[in-house]
Amino acid sequence: MQPDRSVGDEPDVPELKLRLRDVRKSFGPLRAVDGVDFDCRIGEVHSILGENGAGKSTLMNIVAGVLSPDSGEMWLDGEPYEPTSPKRAMRRGVGMVHQNYQLVPRLSVAENLFLGWEGAPRVASLEKLAAIAEVAIEKHGFHMKPLAKVRELSVGEQQRVAILRALVRGASLLILDEPTATLTPQECDSLFAIMRRLVGDGHVLIFITHKLREVMAVSSRVTVLRAGARVATLPIAECDERTLAKEMLGHDVDSPVKSSRVRRYKEVALSLRGGTVVDGRGSRVVSDVSLELRAREIVGIAGVSGNGQRELSEAAAGVRPLRTGRIEVGGVDLTGRGAADFIRAGVGYIPEDRLTAGMVLRESIARNSIMKALYLDSDRKTLTRGPFLKLGEVQRFARQLLDQGQVSTRDPKVTVGSLSGGNIQRLLIARELRAATRALIAVHPTRGLDVGAMERAWRIFLAARDAGVGILLISEDLDEVLTLSDRVLVMYAGRIVGEFDNRESPPSREHLGLLMGGATAAELERPAVGSEAGR
Amino acid sequence: MSSSAQPSAQPSTGRLTPRLRGWISGWMLERGPTSVTRDWILRLVAIIVVLSVAVVYIVATVHVPDILGLVFRGTFTTEPGIQELVVLATPFFLTALAVSIPLRVGLWNIGGEGQFFAGAWLATGFSFWLPHLPGPLMIIGMLVAGAVGGAVWAVIPLLAKIYLNVNEIITTLMLNLIVVYWVAYWLTGAWRYGFSQGGTIESKFIPSQAHLPLLPFQGGIDSGILVAVGLLAVVGFVLHYSVAGYRSRIVGSGPDVAAFAGVRVRRTIAVSLLLAAALAGVAGVLQLTGNSYQLTPGLSNNTGYLGIAVAVLAGDSVIGVGVMSCLLAVIMSAGQIVQVYGVSSEDVFIIIGLLLLLSTVATRLGQYRLVRRPGAARVGSSTLAGAGGGRSLEAREPTTRVGVSEVVSLVVETGPDGGQGA
Questions:
Q1: What is the pTM (predicted TM-score) of this model?
Q2: In Å, how far is A98's CA from the nearest CA of chain B?
Q3: Among B331, B347, B337, which residue's Cα sits nearest to residue B88?
Q4: Domain extents for chain A?
Q5: What value does the mean pLDDT take over residues A83-108?
Q6: Domain A258-346+436-535 maps to which CATH number in 1.20.1070.10, 3.40.50.300, 3.40.640.10, 3.40.50.720?
Q7: Which chain B residue has its CA at the smallest distance from A394's CA?
Q8: Per-residue pLDDT averaged across A107-128, rounded?
Q9: From the list B256, B394, B403, which residue is nearest A84 (CB)?
């Protein structure tokens, strides 16, 4: 490889696959991508590293034709490149695998591969599609059955279908948007193996991530974005995690959040015994789960999304009824009671779908702030007079939450929908912490926050714990679980499959990863377990 | 790329020249934020457009000098004109609320017409069964009977909705048909007006102490308007300032957030629908006691259905319900005047239909903005770097976009000549 080509060369440098010059994109006042130059060479895995909101996805959505840039120039294979739709980008060989794989769950792998593709045969039986799909699967060395229904596949397998779909359509440049977010460590390893094989076959890969470890593991070069601008492009051989972190954050890494040891109280904040929960379609997604959350402790639940965590959290917050089992808050039996009784008992809840479940986006901050407080006797007294709201008090209450949550606006009259995702999250955390006098159920509580805000949220959770709140932390992010938790449980297929004392004998990431992927105790005892164990 | 980059590659694509296609392809629709003010401006534009069309139509078809002046004076300045406006507007306030309130919790109550008649029927019965009650007691009793009658008429759809999740649009609509024949049964039987022969069916007159008093203004204004406006104000206040109103808005925002916030969804839905139906029933009573003094199959004058139009035009604003009720009353009243000059009553409903269509389309279209496609300046010369290229405006979620050229080329290429032509 030649040394890094400097900006300003002729546009038709042959070994460059993709070349961007001064690409800009604004959303209102926000400059999401602010004059980025970017080169991607033939034969490389090029990582795009940056915090949430750094502009990684926006930039690559521009390359994939999903968004059009406000200004700037692009070349692909030495030719000017102006995709105006994903379809047109695909015709030039640029495919993107989004975080949501956009597959149809009830259709087969083969049907998903051909759906919406202009190159698909006009008339073909399912068998014929399967035969064509089989050839493509073989060619790229994937292992999957073309007639398997997508909904029966694991998340990792679904991702492979999405990758294959782009390859079948002739993608030579493949963009993977945070592909590891929902995978176990082992599934990540097999994804990386696929990526290396694709590069060997002559594909070029762009890998979007905010995880330093993965950048080091798989890429040949890395471009770091910060606040919409490119701050560095480095060969991977010349950097380490620490320098990358510094480039990404713009300052030296703070002293990491450390959980101090506190004695948990004897008092049980929330207990669930033999809890079974069914989802909206009536299938059992939480089976016979028992857990005890003491006051003044954080219990982390690790697991890949879709293994029953959502339903477990809803049941713990009283939003979804238990099919069987018994749930108590502060020693009071609340089995069969509604969310209102859980709120009164002092349970706060940070749900996974904060935008559809936790907030009403078209209502003002003021009206969203009091969603929980109306159930709490002390707050209710100040906020209402008889059946009516005291709007002045409601606004004052909202301003308190805005202060506590360090939300960027101080105006409680604006709608929540006009806030950024991170600010909505901060408001939500502030509201729920205020309501959580006994227990807090927190699901992916820092997803969508930048590193600074995330660490602040972590410190707030630890402070709440020290003050005596029991916190049930459900997260896919192992770093988060391992940093905050006093105890760690692992959830797989609706059951608790492992429990660790994270203070006395912290579990290894590998061990947790295997459990998250469904490995049984017997498999764990054998020392060398292949990367396919995740399946 | 669109055709702008390769104009010569496609020799003939439809009837548009490459240059024109290039220019058109430089525009696109981008989704942006909406605001209440913006929605209202768009509605106002739609209203002005439709009323202009109506004016042009009337001037063109009615050959009477100064027809517009006649209509205007007849509607707004004469005593009977003003009386008529009030009579027309009164039920709209309530039948529109009957749609608007359930809509806040996500329910479409299409049964305003039936609830109107159910209320009017029970109130008529009340006055016949207790004919010697003194005036105030009689009127209050009839209003209560009307509210009860309307609410009862919504019970079946309500139970079907909350226990079996049966679509309320269908159940409420179907019950409208049933009440028509229920009323007809009484009008041709026990309550038949003695003198009516064959043709029209109508009930006996209600006792005279059941007539609403007239307000001493403009030769006597129907006082039912006070009841209607009063109820509108109370509903608006409760929805905006009460805890219950707040919770109803949460329910309307979706089942997830309602469950999260611990709101009892079924109860909220039940209260909303029953309240709405009761208001529609009261509308029937006001029409009965303030205006017609007898139950007839034409008592509602379609106000139950027109209430849907008013509610949609009003968005989710209670003040909007008031304003739009008045607007519709003006259109109906002016329509009655032009009918004298040969314009048919169907034309009036066409105007109302157009109004509804245009204003809903306008508010939906208002979510999009027509913006210059970035880099569109390059048409013809590929060296220009998109100077000053498209400001993306205040789009927070630019997720949906439709290229104008794609729409046009779709229309052109799939035109009668067929895409493969020549």
A1: 0.75
A2: 14
A3: B331
A4: 16-93+172-249, 103-169, 258-346+436-535, 359-431
A5: 89
A6: 3.40.50.300
A7: B241
A8: 84
A9: B403
